[in-house]
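User: quick one
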Amino acid sequence: MQTPDDVSAAAAPAGAAAASGAQPPLDPALLRGLTQARHTRRRFLRGAGLGGGALATSALLSACGIKGTQASGATPAFDWTAWWSRQKQHGVLNFANWPLYIDTDHGKHPSLEQFTAKTGIKVNYYEVIQDNAPFYAQVSPTLRAGQPIGYDIIVMTDNDWTTIELFRVNRWATPLEHGLIPNFFINATPLARNRSVDPGNEFTIPWQSGFTGIAYDPTKIKREINSVHDLWDPAFKGHVGMMSDNTELGSVGLLALGIDPATSTRADWKKAATLLTKQRKQGIVRQYYDQSYIKALENGDIWITQAWSGDIFQANNSGYPHLKFVVPNEGMMVWTDVMMVPLHAQNPVDAMEWMNFYYEPKIGAEVADWVDYVTPVGNTQPILKKSDPSVGNSPLVFPTTAMDDKVRQYYSYKDYDDFNAWNNVFNPIIQS
Amino acid sequence: MTTWRQRLIPYILGLPSTFWLTVFFAVPMISVLSVSLMTGNPEQGYSLTWHFGTFWDGLKTYNTQFIRSFEYGAISTVAALVIGYPIAYFIAFRGGRHKSTLLFIILLPFLVSYVIRMLAWNFLLADQGAILGTLKNIGILPQSARVLSTPLAVITGLTYDAIPYMVLPVYVALEKIDRRVIRAAGDLYASPSKAFMRIVLPLSSAGIFAGFLLVFVTNVGDYVAATILGGPGTTMIGNVIETSYLEDLNYPTAAALSSILMIVLLVVIFLYARTFGTEAVEEAVA
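Assistant: Done. Structure below.
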């Protein structure tokens, strides 16, 4: 085996020759330093570590803090009328939506194709939104920097905190030009027009709505289910599903107390939390589910659960016709996913064109027929009753007037502290 | 001139590793620590106020989840070792010409994403699923029996995922053992079990340590298994960190909890390394 010194002896002349002919051969001590001076190297690393650390620390400290987002968007005084009058159609629309949330036929979207055929606007459709908060986290640095995010329309849930943060608190959305969306004002359902989150539809118009009620499996539960209190029935111990979304969980707790979530107070939240904690401590709750509750209901793990209307409709039509969705006596929550035009969007007029086109009953019906949620486009039911009666006659897609009376809106957070207060009350229940 | 270069060259040679450590370790660590000492909210922004209170609040509110994470991590690590060691032993000593095939089979699960494998367990362990449903139908288990949403389900998931990470380093350590040493033990009248305890096990300790590092550290911080297989009362600290970071936008709390987790893990690893001896550690790292 060669010792390090042998290696250096062999390498030295070659290295010296390569460096320059005039230079003397390398000092053997230097080479020993390279190969043997472990302590020096270790000390060096330690020194470098400290030095690097100190450098990085001072750099971070000088730029310390994370900038706030509040009101970093449009100024209140901005003249949007003048701005809209300067905008032109560009023939392109970049549309960001959730997966499986538009009519799809062999990888194509017929409603978008009809839009292109009619207006000449080419649509780039992106299924990039998986959840509100992560999508918000993705786009917020760009919006904070005052740059376009590359989408002209984004779809988010209107009562979600990050959505409120985006369009109301930070003012990162373009106010809609109502003159360009006459179809909305002709055809939108009352549910779609009057939303506590965005009164007057200044920034948002609905894409789809849905209900959060109760679903159960009549093969497991032999009695009639009609109240949110049935979720607290000890007879179903270990087979009750609740939602891990703390807005949904808190809201059903409030409904059980007979309180309207939209007008609830922080004292009410605490009472609801007590009730929900009792439910968990008694072992009634099997799990706090995301959308996977539907699978648990289908395979019999849970017998009764908080549920979204569209999921039950789809389960009914895909091998689980026995599952039932009920509107509890105490009320059911309605949520709405809305279309928005983010600030700095490059094709705002094209975006408005699409919104207007979507609110034609024929197009709204086509999308509703595929996604099976509650459509905000009015006058679509007669069309679907003819073309697809299973959807057209379903109260899960077209709620009856009796159901309308049971609809409750979510609490709308005033600011981050309000949102944080809600989290502090309800998160400990889920994260036990 | 010569002395100047003499001093400089080791530093230049150290540059790549220094750069790597700084960019991928020091800077992220320091930024996480500094965020954990900030106060504010996402609207007004966060500023560094040296607010150590977040740490105490985090420990006070989530101590159950911390303790639970370490429990689950420890149990799943030991279980993975108990299951993985015999597998590694078999492959190393009895594998013969099938060694590479057997190793490939151990690695096979990596071809499928972790989340998908957890979902598969969710399907397998369902109340009326392939395993429990059958056992219930032939009357071995009562109808009300369930595994999903219990700590057992989460630990099973964690252990399952950990086995390859345990088998591979242990296999490498066992493979390196000079077979003549074991034969010598036999020649000196050591029984096979004594030869194993006195020779094989100590010589494979570096592999066990590496397996411990890979499995324990990953499993303590895991949140996927608890999300997919767990229920009320199985939330791990990873779930809390994920929620406070992504859903609540509460960065200081998330950063403080991460820092606590990191510090406690470092202490545990340090203690483990001390009791095992540093040579084993150096060998494991090499």
